[in-house]
Amino acid sequence: MPELPEMETYRQQLTRLIQGAPITGAEVTRPKSLNVEPDSFIRKLTGNRIVRIDRRAKHLLFHLESGEVLLLHLMLGGWMFYGTEDEKPDRTTQVVIHFGAKHLYFIGLRLGYLHMHTLPEVDLLLSKLGPEPLDSRFTFTQFQQVLKSKKSNLKLSFVDQSFLSGIGNCYSDEICFYAGILPLRKLSSLTEEEQNRLFQAVRSVLLEAIQFGGYIDEPLFIGDRLTGQFDAKCRVYDREGEPCLRCGHPLIKAEVSSRKCFYCANCQA
After folding, report:
1. How many CB atoms lie under 10 A from the CB of residue 46?
2. What distance in Å separates the CA atoms of residue 49 and residue 46, rounded to the nearest whole number?
3. What does the pLDDT read at residue 111?
4. In 18-101, where do the E strands start and end?
5. Which residues, in sequence order, are CB contacts of 8 under 8 Å at separation 6+?
6. Residues 105 and 144 in one domain
7. Alpha carbons 17 and 167: distance in angstroms, whole number
8. What CATH number corresponds to the domain at position 62?
9. Which of 36, 57, 133, 214 could be 6's S-S partner, Cβ–Cβ 3.0 to 4.6 Å?
10. Where does the FPG-type domain start and stop, copy by copy (predicted)?
């Protein structure tokens, strides 16, 4: 599932590609991906423009010139492609937004959605999300308060969007490894020094992942050299049995409440 770095990569690239461009039409092949009737969706988009693209947690917010907001959550298996009809991957699309000769294809929206809301509705829908970990106003003291809000282990806390927003299976493991702390540790067991290591790890890992385009291996457009470059840089996620980059011991894969969890039992404590 795309997490904060993947959605931030999409935001930055799509801002350059489609912001301000006239929307010339749309197609909907899966009405369940929307929260409005397809005809109404297409009518409201046609002749409109996307004036700004924001990210909140794992969501993208496409602000329309007319005042509405398209709220996107890709969920498991969802991704996007921008290009001409000839360039489009041979994959089923659920929604397509046309920008003249080029189109934004939404692929794999079986669990995800592209909903149309007013801005107050979006604010209400996202109000239960936890703090944005990369917000410059998010301090170590605030992070310590967040740690006190949960009684579970690090893995389950990190993937809980009311704890910190935007982190999921991959980056929860990468952050814990970077900090040298087992993802199975209870939050209450962390010393202040470990809390600080974890706080620094959150920022370092997420910023590095954004710099290298996240881990999704599907390019956003033909010639996209950024999207997915972090996949090869993952230190533990999906690396079961491989030698730890720090100590050489084989990495372990475990299940934590039905979630995959990767770590080094030797150098994470």
Report:
1. 14
2. 8
3. 93
4. 25-28, 50-56, 59-64, 69-73, 79-83, 93-99
5. 55, 210, 214
6. no
7. 26
8. 3.20.190.10
9. 214
10. 235-269
Cβ 45 vs Cβ 25: under 8 Å: yes
Cα torsion for 20, 212, 210, 143, to the nearest 10°? 180
* Contact indicator for 172, 160 with CB cutoff of 8 Å: no
Whole-angstrom distance, CA of residue 116 vs CA of residue 95: 13
Question: What integer pLDDT is reported at residue 96 of this predicted model?
Answer: 98
CA distance 145 to 139: 10
Structural domain that includes position 37: 4-125
Hey, what are 237's tokens? 């996620």
Q: Which of 132-153 are b and which e, b meaning 16 or more Cβ less than 10 Å from the residue's Cβ? A: bbbeeebeeeebeebbeebeeb
Helix, strand or coil, per DSSP, at residue 132: coil
Listed residues 93, 125, 157: the one ending a domain: 125
Total residues found in the chain within this entry: 269
| Residues with catalytic function | 2-3, 58, 259
The conformational region for residue 49 under phi > 0 = left, psi -120 to 50 = alpha, else beta, is beta
Let me know: does 3 contact 220? Beta carbons within 8 Å: no
Its pTM stands at 0.96
Greatest pairwise CA separation for the chain in angstroms = 58
- Residue 217 reports pLDDT greater than 90: no
User: Which of 91, 125, 159 is at the close of a domain?
Assistant: 125
Retrieve residue 268's tokens.
């994470």
Token code pair at residue 13: 């690239």
56-78 pLDDT, tens digit per residue, is: 999 999 999 999 999 999 999 99
Count other Cβ atoms within 10 Å, centred on residue 33: 22
Two structure tokens written together for 21: 């461009």
- Residue 145: φ, ψ to 5°: -65, -40
